[in-house]
Structure formats: structure tokens, C-alpha cells
UniProtKB/TrEMBL annotation:
Keywords: Membrane, Transmembrane, Transmembrane helix. This is Uncharacterized protein. The chain crosses the membrane at residues 41-62, 71-88, 108-126.
Length: 141
């Protein structure tokens, strides 16, 4: 007769309070309005929408700071919106095609925050998450 198989450990649940969910939903609305304004070349509206879009992204990142996975993804979103907003601004004000370095235009500078966001996610998936997985393993005898 074999020993009973232990029950799997319960999976950790991450729930979002309703007030946070409403904020996230309004964030999506502001982001869409910003990008529509960019597409339609409505400069004042596009520039105005940067403030609530980026502001809410920062608040969301701050509120999720206790969860490493959520924080990493939300910080990546902050840098994505920053890059996206800079790119929009460079087109609105005409410095997107200005050469700032050899083979680098004003628009290309948006790569800096894009790459910072990517770096945060790479660090999370290549370093932090494996570390968390190892810490959660139960050694066998």
C-alpha cells in the first residue's frame, strides 16, 4: 500500500478591489483617447491626455508594489506610456525626424523608455520569477 499523495498547495489568489478596477478601466479610456488624438493629430487633446494616462499608470504601479509580478508589469506599462507619449509629442512638434545623433532621430529617443520597460520585464522573468519559484519549492528527502 502506498502513502497518500499530498494535496497540492493552494494557488495564491490576487484580487483587485472594485475601486482599483474602476481606476484601471478609466486608465484604458484615457489611453485610447490619447492615441485617437494622436492618430487624428488633435495636439491639445493628445497632450492633455498624457497627464491622466501616465498619472493613473503611476498610481496603479504604486498600489501593486507589494506584488513583484504586478509591479514589474505595471512599471513596464509606465515606461511604455512614457515612450508612447514622447513619440506622440515628437510628431506633434515636428522633432521626430530631426537627427540628434548619426542614424538617430528625435522619434528614436522613444526607444530609451521602451527598452527600460523591456529590461524590467526581462529582469522579472529571467531573475526574479525563477528565484521565487526556487524559494517556493519544498526540498525532498
Amino acid at each position: 500500500m502506498s502513502a497518500p499523495t499530498p494535496a497540492p498547495a493552494p494557488e495564491e489568489v490576487y484580487s483587485i478591489p472594485a475601486s482599483y478596477r474602476k481606476m484601471e478601466n478609466s486608465h484604458i479610456l484615457f489611453w485610447l483617447v490619447k492615441d485617437i488624438a494622436w492618430c487624428m493629430i488633435w495636439r491639445p487633446l493628445g497632450m492633455l491626455m498624457v497627464v491622466p494616462t501616465l498619472g493613473i499608470a503611476l498610481v496603479i504601479a504604486w498600489r501593486t508594489r507589494a506584488y513583484k509580478s504586478e509591479l514589474a508589469h505595471n512599471l513596464a506599462i509606465v515606461f511604455w506610456i512614457t515612450a508612447n507619449s514622447y513619440w506622440m509629442t515628437s510628431e506633434f512638434f515636428g522633432f521626430d525626424t530631426v537627427q540628434v545623433l548619426p542614424h538617430v532621430t528625435g522619434k528614436h529617443l522613444a526607444l530609451v523608455p521602451f527598452l527600460i520597460g523591456l529590461g524590467i520585464l526581462l529582469y522579472y522573468y529571467l531573475v526574479q520569477k525563477p528565484r521565487e519559484s526556487r524559494a517556493g519549492e519544498v526540498p525532498t528527502l
